[in-house]
Amino acid sequence: MISVEEAKNSILNTTQNFGVEEIPFIKSVGRILKEDIVADRDFPPFNRVSMDGIAIDFNAFKNGQRAFKIEGIQPAGSKQITLQNSENCIEVMTGAVLPKNANSVIRYEDVEIENGIANIQIDKVNDFQNIHTKGKDRKQGDVLIHKNKLISAAEIGVLATVGKSIVKVAKQPKVMIISTGDELVGVDETPLEYQIRRSNVFTLVSLLERLNIPSETAHITDDKPVLKQKIAAYLQEYDVLLFSGAVSKGKFDFLPEVFEELQVQKLFHKITQRPGKPFFYGKTDTSNVFGFPGNPISTFVNCLVYFYSWYYKSVGLKVEEETAILTEDVAFKPNLTYFLQVKLSDKFGHLLASPIKGNGSGDLASLVNADAFIQLPKGETEFKKGENFPVIRYS
Amino acid sequence: MISVEEAKNSILNTTQNFGVEEIPFIKSVGRILKEDIVADRDFPPFNRVSMDGIAIDFNAFKNGQRAFKIEGIQPAGSKQITLQNSENCIEVMTGAVLPKNANSVIRYEDVEIENGIANIQIDKVNDFQNIHTKGKDRKQGDVLIHKNKLISAAEIGVLATVGKSIVKVAKQPKVMIISTGDELVGVDETPLEYQIRRSNVFTLVSLLERLNIPSETAHITDDKPVLKQKIAAYLQEYDVLLFSGAVSKGKFDFLPEVFEELQVQKLFHKITQRPGKPFFYGKTDTSNVFGFPGNPISTFVNCLVYFYSWYYKSVGLKVEEETAILTEDVAFKPNLTYFLQVKLSDKFGHLLASPIKGNGSGDLASLVNADAFIQLPKGETEFKKGENFPVIRYS
């Protein structure tokens, strides 16, 4: 038995590199960027009008002129025109290029226009006001998004702006999720009295979907030769195998033996934690094997704590640790790290964690009433209201 | 001009009901549940063995017996067998039905087995230990998930368990996202000096994807008859139209006029906020029209603040407000609600918001360096380090 920290280290020392692929930028939300995104030109790319109004030569205003004959119009998306006479003005639209020889924009709200003459109604005007000058935000060649960033809506806008219609992202692992256990029947079936429906594989599919990882699922009966043959094939084909069940001490818990016979290198089996103690982790040269215990909450918490961490490091994503504050005293006697189900809430910028009572690792429905786990360290038995602990969110 | 609060009220008073649809449960992550999910039987559905080991009649142990002949084996997924002789035992596996006449399970760790006899190595045994009794977690008919819950991985597990292979969820709105502005070219094109690439529509597509709303996009040139004809058709076909640009005072900002001519009821136009002031909102009998200002940050923040709120209420989802604590003093003079870009971080369970300097509403790239906005109220000009404000996360 090893500690949670040792288990995490072991897992983080055996990450994989799935490589890089190029995909359409609009499909890249939730993926990890694998190239620096550089400004293809200055932003803004020209002296950009930022208010609808008139553009003038500021010197004319400074010299006391207040009435400007409208010489022309500069819409957004049109070639730059020139203010021919410095005592005239040009009507300009937000997003337009500032006309040549103009250097100040006065918004329509501060102007009265009559008979083709714009009369300025304010006394204070600055040069280059309401002009977003070329290159003010970013210079051509500046890195706008650094490699290894998780792509969200903000990044999509930048990718579009610089013309990155195809973008390099981390390839996702190829994952097979396998349930075992002869007591399991399909979701569409009506279980006999001693059977239950498969659920952990679907929970795992959904937890991987949160990471934008597509996955496949299979069910194998508790028959050792069948298990061995199928798993041998999966180890060849997939980067990751996630199992739920058959890793404990039962007579039909064949997985540890099968893994050994298939030369899966065992990194550890069993962690001093609750729930999720009999977790098996191993690897081959090409595949990583996560053998989660079959209880629903055990599978759930181990996927979040171990598979998620392994995946983040594999694709190069740094994730900040978050903590939450206990709202009541909690006692936990066993010398184990305790992953406690909590409901999170906000109070004046403090993240509060209220314990949710469940009936142990089999009580899947209790997960629905919570939205996170907090990690209470091994070696202590009393956890006080007001103390803060690492939090693992899941909804 | 109306306040942010008035604008929000107006929007929340004009939500739509898109109806309900039935979809496969495994596709329902991120959707809003529209039925109560009820336990189809007790959970566990039988007295369930929760440790691998042997099952005995507790009375025999109480009477001093320590050696039990193994009479049979009860695997998970097999019909319940009967302990024929109360001085014998049955080997039982986690997940199995407790054999008839047995009422205590002793785990393998506490037993030595030799020649078909299990010798108990511990002195303390309780009746019903290591047995998860029928109905302990939930009773048949209990509501496991209430209507209007956002479905995540935990709910998927419960849906599978109760056999809900098809589930009722809120239908998503049919959304069209429209850009206008003759300065815009496609992402794949190389813009001329006075042009820029379309980006806001893609940002909006991604922001809607976060809500699992598929959307379509279109671009219309700044030509009033064309705008009118196309928008008339979209108003018929879509529940929601999202526009970016052409709602301000420019000579080619035709949208407000077009909306009026198409009998879109204007709820408001312009909010006392920065960025995102010239936001137009209106409706017809069948469609809601969000006219976001064309600056990237204006479109972004208005989608998060207004469209998101409108959508959540439309589908019946309650979202808790969250707040964060300013890490430095901020001064903001205009009498406007200020949506300040911030980077969030955690310190001992406190959510800290550090302001990110951008160059105003056109500086899309600055969104990448932040991950949220905080909402600083109108009417104040000094916001102090340590004060907390509502936060709107986006990544």
Automatic annotation (TrEMBL), chains A, B:
GO terms for biological process: Mo-molybdopterin cofactor biosynthetic process. It catalyses: adenylyl-molybdopterin + molybdate = Mo-molybdopterin + AMP + H(+). Keywords: Magnesium, Metal-binding, Molybdenum, Molybdenum cofactor biosynthesis, Transferase. GO terms for cellular component: cytosol. Transmembrane segments: none annotated. The keyword Transferase applies. Pathway: Cofactor biosynthesis; molybdopterin biosynthesis. SMART domains: MoCF_biosynth. One of its GO terms (molecular function) is metal ion binding. Residues 176-313 form the MoaB/Mog domain. It is an enzyme of class 2 (transferase). It holds the Pfam family MoCF_biosynth. Its cofactor is Mg(2+). Its EC number is 2.10.1.1. PANTHER family: GEPHYRIN, MOLYBDOPTERIN BIOSYNTHESIS PROTEIN. Catalyzes the insertion of molybdate into adenylated molybdopterin with the concomitant release of AMP. Belongs to the MoeA family. This is Molybdopterin molybdenumtransferase.
